């Protein structure tokens, strides 16, 4: 896996359990509709333990989280909530605890696989590498 395993640009390909998950984390119904099958482009720049993780949403909205593995950072959720988190690296996965869900991201078979878990609901999003 090399040090820059995450660097790249990824396009949303598919997801599982979206409705169950977003309902459990309390997203409003308009946000839920907006996010369904949303062709999010995720852009990751990894420099050793430093990451810049940007999500480009259709319509021009962008969320960027910049963090260093093992250090507390200011982060923002899918729903726009600000919080502090310490991102860890476990078995090649980036792992973070958001205010109301646990999130992991890994590169597997050239795809970005993100898994979020809240109250027993497991949401999986797969993105294919486009750059």
Automatic annotation (TrEMBL):
<feature type="domain" description="Cytosolic fatty-acid binding proteins">
    <location>
        <begin position="8"/>
        <end position="25"/>
    </location>
</feature>
<protein>
    <submittedName>
        <fullName>FABP6 protein</fullName>
    </submittedName>
</protein>
<dbReference type="GO" id="GO:0008289">
    <property type="term" value="F:lipid binding"/>
</dbReference>
<dbReference type="InterPro" id="IPR012674">
    <property type="entry name" value="Calycin"/>
</dbReference>
<dbReference type="GO" id="GO:0005737">
    <property type="term" value="C:cytoplasm"/>
</dbReference>
<keyword id="KW-0963">Cytoplasm</keyword>
<dbReference type="InterPro" id="IPR031259">
    <property type="entry name" value="ILBP"/>
</dbReference>
<comment type="similarity">
    <text>Belongs to the calycin superfamily. Fatty-acid binding protein (FABP) family.</text>
</comment>
<keyword id="KW-0446">Lipid-binding</keyword>
<dbReference type="InterPro" id="IPR000463">
    <property type="entry name" value="Fatty_acid-bd"/>
</dbReference>
<dbReference type="Pfam" id="PF14651">
    <property type="entry name" value="Lipocalin_7"/>
</dbReference>
<keyword id="KW-0813">Transport</keyword>
